[in-house]
Amino acid sequence: MNPFRILGDLSHLASILVLIFNIKSTNTIEGISIKTQVLYVLVFLTRYLDLFSFRLVSFYNTIMKLFFISSSIYVVVLLQRSKTTQAVAYKTMLLTDTFKVQYILLGTLIAAFVINHKFTFVEIAWSFSVWLESVAILPQLFMLSKSGKSKSLTVHYIFALGLYRTLYIPNWIWRYHTEGVIDKIALAAGIIQTLVYSDFFYLYYKKVIKRSALNLP
Amino acid sequence: ITKNVVHDEL
Questions:
Q1: N or C end: fewer C-beta atoms under 10 angstroms in chain B?
Q2: Which tens digits make up the pLDDT trace of A129-155?
Q3: Do A118 and B2 touch (CB under 8 A)?
Q4: How far does the CA of residue A96 sit from the closest CA of chain B (Å)?
Q5: How far is A61 from chain B (nearest CA, A)?
Q6: Residue A210: which pLDDT band, with cuts at 50, 70 and 90?
Q7: Smallest Cβ distance to A5: which of B2, B5, B9?
Q8: Which H, E and C letters describe chain A, residue by residue?
Q9: How confident is the model over A28-44, as a mean pLDDT?
Q10: Cβ of A50 and B2 within 8 Å?
Q11: CB contact under 8 A, A61 and B10
């Protein structure tokens, strides 16, 4: 375990908690793609199947898995609940959240069957999960490119998400030099994810940060 | 057989 990975995992968890805090405190879901949030739940559920095998890696690893699964499910619950509490915003979300996730699911499923560590259910599910995580933000990216509004996607959320991705690269470098081991599939998916995220951040910067700067009185 | 892969990263 190295500081990059711990900080990366904590900022990943922080990004989910910030999103929950934003939804609950501002009581708005504007700009959030429910599809991306559902894909994240799928990422955690398919990746953490080893929780059921009780071959626990470590206490930290187990407790964080439980945190990730529960907090990401809670985000989706909050978004679903806004169907009643803020019906208009919920309808707007469904109207603008139009990315065809079928393509992502099919593509990542094929990738999982072709590229995995071992042709077992758990390993194919794990591989599906890392490929899925690398493209899960696409619905959110397309929604942002269309609407440009994003009250709930605050800079804190974007920063924490970016920090998580960024810190995983030095973590892999550190592990390669200290343990001489590297998970090639996680590395490949992680690089794709970092590229997709940087595209998302560029869009966010253009759409939200520069636009709000223009609106200054 | 290939070693059992242990994923210790989240």
A1: N
A2: 999 999 999 999 999 999 877 888 889
A3: yes
A4: 31
A5: 7
A6: confident
A7: B9
A8: CCHHHHHHHHHHHHHHHHHHHHHHHHCCCCCCCHHHHHHHHHHHHHHCCHHHHCCCCCHHHHHHHHHHHHHHHHHHHHHHHHHHHCHHHHHHHHHHCCCCHHHHHHHHHHHHHHCCCCCCHHHHHHHHHHHHHHHCCHHHHHHHHHHCCCCCCCHHHHHHHHHHHHHHHHHHHHHHHHHCCCCHHHHHHHHHHHHHHHHHHHHHHHHHHHHHHHCCC
A9: 97
A10: no
A11: yes
Q: How confident is the model at residue A185 (pLDDT cuts 50, 70, 90)?
A: very high
Identify residues of B whose CB sits under 8 angstroms from chain A CBs. Answer: 2, 4-10
| B2 vs A contacts (CB less than 8 Å) | 117-118
> What are the tens digits of pLDDT across the range A86-128?
999 999 999 999 999 999 999 999 999 999 999 999 999 999 9
The C-alpha of B1 sits at a distance from chain A's nearest C-alpha, in angstroms, of: 10
Least CB–CB distance from B10: residue in A9, A118, A183: A9
